[in-house]
From TrEMBL:
Its main location: membrane. The keyword Membrane applies. This is Binding-protein-dependent transport systems inner membrane component. Residues 59-239 form the ABC transmembrane type-1 domain. The chain crosses the membrane at residues 70-94, 106-132, 221-242. Keywords: Cell membrane, Membrane, Transmembrane, Transmembrane helix, Transport. GO terms for cellular component: plasma membrane. The lineage of its organism: Bacteria, Pseudomonadati, Spirochaetota, Spirochaetia, Spirochaetales.
Length: 250
């Protein structure tokens, strides 16, 4: 059942209010700001952090790493996913990598990457390795679920390969690619920030979270977490907007 955009916004607002009420109640019960600060205390610290000159520099640094890892994972994952969907031999060849990356803990990848790369590259490398299996799997399933009758009909009517790809295969792959894109974008934000927490590069939201934690500034840790949530939500909204305009123009 599809709900209207207005009702959807009301439900989202109600969910946020409920979360804040639970947070405030839990903070009152704990009664220790170093463990669980109140929402108002976090808001005050968020405003203070936002007044700093370096605030947007840290967001931009993390956003750049997310964008690089997201685009690389999406492009390479689509190509590998198509190959895996079209060729069972290539699928078997690729399966050990996909299975390994699906089971290896994110922290293990980050710790190994620290031995190989500078602090600015580790978050990107880890995000790419974690995101690639998601894209490959989604595109592979999309290829395998393509209506074979349409492909066969295009072959019978001798539709040129380029037109066959553009009018038959790609339109059926778009939903799988869009799903993979949304999943990958959120995953890249989580892994990039985790990588920054471990490596503490000069700029980055994760680095600021780690520095705040080392200083026992719980309010700052929560405030930077809110920044990550908002940044990820905005990037997801931009992706949805691009998807919407893409559908209208097609």
């Amino acid at each position: 059942m599809k709900i209207s955009p207005a009702r959807s916004m009301v439900l989202v607002a109600a969910s946020v209010v409920l979360l804040l009420i639970i947070w405030e109640a839990a903070s009152s019960i704990v009664n220790a700001d170093i463990i669980l600060p109140t929402p108002f205390a976090v808001l005050r610290r968020l405003i203070a952090i936002g007044d700093r000159r370096t605030f947007f520099r840290h967001i931009a640094a993390s956003g750049e790493r997310v964008a690089v890892s997201f685009l690389f994972s999406l492009i390479v994952g689509i190509l590998l996913g198509i190959g895996s969907g079209l060729s069972s031999a290539f699928r078997a060849f690729l399966s050990p990598f996909v299975h390994t990356m699906r089971t290896v803990p994110v922290m293990a990848v980050i710790l190994i990457a620290i031995l190989w790369f500078p602090s600015t590259v580790v978050p990107i490398f880890a995000a790419v390795l974690m995101a690639l299996p998601v894209v490959i799997g989604a595109v592979e399933r999309g290829i395998l679920e393509i209506d074979s009758k349409l492909v066969e009909m295009a072959h019978i009517f001798r539709v040129p390969p380029v037109e066959r790809l553009r009018r038959v295969i790609i339109p059926q792959l778009v939903p799988s690619i869009l799903t993979a894109a949304h999943l990958t974008l959120g995953l890249c934000w989580k892994v990039v920030v985790a990588g920054e927490i471990f490596t503490i590069p000069r700029s980055g939201v994760g680095a600021q979270m780690q520095l705040a934690q080392l200083s026992l500034e719980s309010e700052a840790v929560f405030a930077w977490t809110v920044v990550v949530v908002i940044s990820a939500a905005l990037s997801q909204a931009l992706l949805s907007l691009a998807d919407h305009f893409g559908k209208r123009s097609s």
